[in-house]
Amino acid sequence: MKFKITFVLFVLICLTLFSQNNDTKKNDPNAFKLEHAQIGFVEDNKASYKRTEHPDAQWFPDAGFGMFIHFGICSVKQLDLSWPMIAGMKIAQFKLDSAEVKKVMASGDYFIRNNCKDDNTCVTPIEYWEQAKYFNPTNYKPEEWAKAAKAAGMKYMVFTTRHHDGFALWPSKYGNFNTKNYMGGKDLIKPYVEACRKYGLKVGLYYSGPDWYFNKDYQDFMYYKVRKIYPNIPRLDENLQVRTSEKSEVEKQAHYDEVALYIKGQVTELLSNYGKIDVIWFDGAPDIPKGNKSWKKCITMDEIHTLQPGILVSPRFFGYGDFKTFEANLSKQVNKQTGWAEFCSTVAQWTWAITKVPLKTTTALLAEFIQSRSLNMNYLLNFGPTKEGVINTDMTNRLTEIANWMKVNGASLTDCTALSDAETATVYATAKKQHRYLFLLADKKYENIQLTGTEEVKTVTLLATGKNVNYSFENGKLTILEKDVTRTALADVIDVELK
Fold first, then answer.
1. Are 352 and 451 within one domain?
2. From its phi and psi, is residue 82 left (phi > 0), alpha (psi between -120 and 50) or beta?
3. Residue 371 to residues 64, 239, 374, 422, 463, Cα–Cα distance (Å)
4. Fewest CB within a 10 Å sphere: which of 95, 122, 257, 380?
5. Residue 13's pLDDT is what?
6. In what order do the strands lie in the sheet with 472-474?
7. What residues contact 136, with CB distance under 8 A and at least 6 apart?
8. pTM to 2 decimals?
9. Are residues 407 and 429 in the same domain?
10. Whether residue 446 is found in the same domain as residue 352
């Protein structure tokens, strides 16, 4: 009897802890690490792969700024992409007192403690996938996205062609959950690629290794780590009910082969049907165990480069690639990067697709951008279009404010690098030839600003206005008092020109 009560209790707890509860990411800085573990993204530090030397790929380290677009069927109900269908993300850290135990046991409310109840977005995987029936963006104009990206100083875009939820935004010959089966076969990839080219932006395609729809008969919709802690926790199906049967090893192996061929087919379509592609932004490994023989049937790095010789490949599929990716919480990744790297973040406070989650301030977004560039990373800023295909007014306003700031300060963040190892600054800083750019963030106060290890100084000015700034220079140390700097509502940039 005790075992049965414990078993039921854990089932109820797990079902209450869906990751669509936005507080999971809001309150837990490790939430994205948990997601990476779920999708099999593990860096292979022993890989012998060397970054591409193809001349068409050398634009990346100087790009500085890019636009990420997370779009899909989730926009119908304004859910975050894919993750609402995974239960138990925080169970390892969740503790119930006796009163809470009684409440859960008595209520049978699987969505207790979830904010999704406030806006009617509590869903099972099956209910999530049903959004495909209603997904038909009536105002889909990626040209407007590209135009806005160009105006903001962005150099490239990355678009979610298929996320973990499995819905592909083009009429793929592989699988049965894409626009071939919905939307009358409309292709959402082609107009996006054409828009990028029209505005001179490099073309990036996001593609998820995991596919929870294709894998649904084998997928456990309980977060994987829960079972490592509680071995008796049941596997959950697409209705978030306990799975009553298990696949045989023969069935699993046949399925792994199907996954490999499916992934290879879709990636080949993406890299063959739309002309030159500059970035394939993989996110997670296929649903095939590491080391399984089915990997030999999946697409390889060599095959990718045969299809697109000048392409850049993210490391989140094979465990290695042409650049490192950092995500969402830059404060814990403070080391200056010596190789190519990118920090991706979202205009919303903690979700990627269009949701009701509040947006970050322009001040906060510029701070992320500045910190990224000071650490030798590109900044890939994400926007989530509405179900109609529009980037809403609030997001557009953020982008416009960034664009206006970039018109007068953009030189400090594009075609720049971090300071050399011989130079240090007491604020975020970048370098470009004889210029050193020092950043004063809008929400920070500084008694003085120092730059050491430099050559003799020629001029010190405010980049936005050209106005001279008082300074002292002695023994290779430049010192500026904040009281001598005219501050504005957003970040200010001091341009130090060396002799």
1. no
2. left
3. 11, 43, 5, 19, 18
4. 95
5. 43
6. 424-425, 448-452, 477-481, 472-474
7. 182, 183
8. 0.90
9. no
10. no
**CA distances from residue 11 to 105, 108, 221, 242 in whole angstroms, order as listed:** 10, 10, 12, 9
pLDDT at 103: 55
Residues 407, 442, single domain; the answer is: no
Long-range contacts of 429-437 (CB under 8 A, 24+ apart): 429/374, 430/373, 430/374, 434/458, 434/497, 434/498, 434/499, 435/411, 435/495, 435/496, 435/497, 435/498, 436/495, 436/496, 436/498, 437/411, 437/412, 437/413, 437/463, 437/493, 437/494, 437/495, 437/496
Same domain, 248 and 387: yes
Nearest to 175 by CA among 263, 253, 250, 239: 263
**pLDDT higher at 19 or 106:** 106
Choose among 5, 60, 111, 67: nearest CA to 385.
67
Q: Which of 49-58, 106-115, 174-183, 415-424 has the lowest mean pLDDT?
A: 106-115
Whether residues 193 and 108 fall in one domain? yes
Quote the CA–CA distance of 112 and 109 in Å, as a whole number.
5
Give the mean pLDDT of 376-381. 97
Mean pLDDT of the region 401-428: 96
- Residues 356 and 360: their CA atoms lie apart, in Å, by 12
Residues near 261 by Cβ (< 8 Å), separated by ≥ 6? 174, 297, 298
Task: Please give the structure tokens belonging to residue 234.
Answer: 């049941």
pLDDT at 8 over 60: no
27 within 8 A of 329, measured Cβ to Cβ:
no
pLDDT at 17 over 70: no
Query: Residues with Cβ < 8 Å from 305, sequence gap 6 or more?
Result: 52, 54, 311
Q: Is the sign of the CA dihedral 387, 393, 398, 399 positive or negative?
A: positive
Q: Is the pLDDT of residue 29 over 60?
A: no
Q: How much is the pLDDT for 44?
A: 83
For residue 327, the cross-strand partners are: 344
- Residues 427, 432, 438: CA angle, nearest 5 degrees: 20
pLDDT of residue 12: 44
**Residue type for position 279:** V
Domain tally, the chain: 2
Domain of 318: which CATH number?
Answer: 3.20.20.80
**Bridge-based pairing state of the strands 424-425 and 417-418:** unpaired
pLDDT at 369 over 70: yes
pLDDT higher than 70, residue 421:
yes
Residue 24 pLDDT more than 50? no
Specify whether 336 is located in the same domain as 445.
no
Q: Are residues 286 and 400 in the same domain?
A: yes
Range of the domain at 494: 419-498
Give dist(CA 402, CA 410) in Å, integer: 10
